[in-house]
Give the backbone structure.
Amino acid sequence: MFARHNLLTIDDLTNAEIEQTLSTAQSFKEINEREIKKLPTLRGLTVINAFFEPSTRTRTSFEIAGKRLGADVINFSSSGSATAKGESLADTAATLDAMACDIVVVRHRYSGAPALLAGRMRGHIINGGDGMHQHPTQTLLDLFTMQEHIGTVKGKTIGIVGDIAHSRVAGSLAPALKRLGATPVFIAPPTYLPAVPEELGAEVAYALDDILADLDVVYLLRIQGERADGRAVPSLREYATHFGMNRLRMERLGAGAIVMHPGPMNRGVEISADVADDARCVVLDQVTAGVAVRMALMYLMVGGGTDVAAT
Ligand code: NCD
């Protein structure tokens, strides 16, 4: 059984719970292909999307997921909320809790903000990305997409390329891959590597071209300009020359290898426009998986016991 009240980091889930979420997501993906996509599982429940940082994909994806399961979904962003008037996160938590919401999805620039809310609210808290720390639902959708395209991740080599030091996406993806039997490899200039890459379960390579042909997945990251104090590379053009995925590098990819990106993509920096539109670049499959995975997670969290496939 799925016993999680909150999802604050990917480490909260056992391997079995990750697998359960992905297989439940498979059923939801099929439901999402139907003409009528709505189920009554969360009817009467309220989902609040509390986004204190910009988001397109994650917020929309949670909103669609909640609505497809019949919940009432409320969105608020910091610019339109009391936070902009100086309210503390603890007071915001108390306010939301007093409204008896059932699931709160939090995105915040401070690592640990979802954990703070979890200590102060009765509803289920889901981390929608906190600072440079974790983005666990991104990891679930990434694992789902990898499984779809390359089969089990066990024994596979996943290159995570770019601004790893500032990336919550890498912070949750690498340890999950390692635990599921894959080999995550961070590929970046030294200034974009975390202080101790091994803590995240990853190996390190400094030259994309040396390792490209051995990768099953090339997972590209956006340079997190909003988190770094000034750029850690001499120029974006130089970065693109050494670490960007382009047409020539695509020719050297192994058979069956894919390119992934959590979005938003910076075309011309970490990915060239033609690679972004190449069939081996599966970013839109990641987006599709995001809705199914988030439906599965909320369904399992609130204790949906019935077989989804039978719905
Ligand atoms: C990522 C994020 O916000 O952490 N985007 C996302 O959720 N899909 C990655 C990024 O902003 O680069």
